[in-house]
Amino acid sequence: MKWKTTFLAAPALALAALMAAPAAGIVSPAQAACGPGDHINGSSASWARQKFQEAGYGKVTDLKKGCDNYWHGIAMTSGGQQQRVVVSPDGNVMKEGGDGAAPQAHFEG
Questions:
Q1: Which of 19, 55, 76, 84 stands 20 to 30 A from 63 (CA)?
Q2: DSSP string for the chain
């Protein structure tokens, strides 16, 4: 009976250990989408959210940073409409997908 408990518990413990501790050198699929030459700057989601709010947008959600360092998200306009928005690395806020919008990018995550 003891061997059955050990036999069943060992794989469960090994799986739990793998899930709890990130393995060194493993890259998430989103990070793998960036090319080896892509320079990812130090801008943060809070910086991007602040830029969107300074431009008059509220309730900023779904923030994702592209490999081109553009932050993409969804925000509410002053009229209460959802709008896809993007902020460039130098802080320019634009509507996504319309005139003057930044190019679409693959995301780092």
A1: 19
A2: -HHHHHHHHHHHHHHHHHHHSPPTT---HHHHTS-TTPPP----HHHHHHHHHHTT-EEEEEEEEBTTS-EEEEEE-TTS-EEEEEE-TT--EEETTSTTPPPP--B--
**Residue 12, both tokens:** 């469960």
Q: Report the C-alpha gap between 14 and 36 in whole angstroms.
A: 33
Q: Which residue has the tokens 């190019």?
A: 103
* Residue 88 near residue 82, CB atoms below 8 Å: no
Return the sign of the alpha-carbon dihedral for residues 68, 73, 78, 82.
Answer: positive
Strand partners of residue 87 = 71, 93
What CATH code would you report for 45-95? 3.10.450
pTM: 0.60
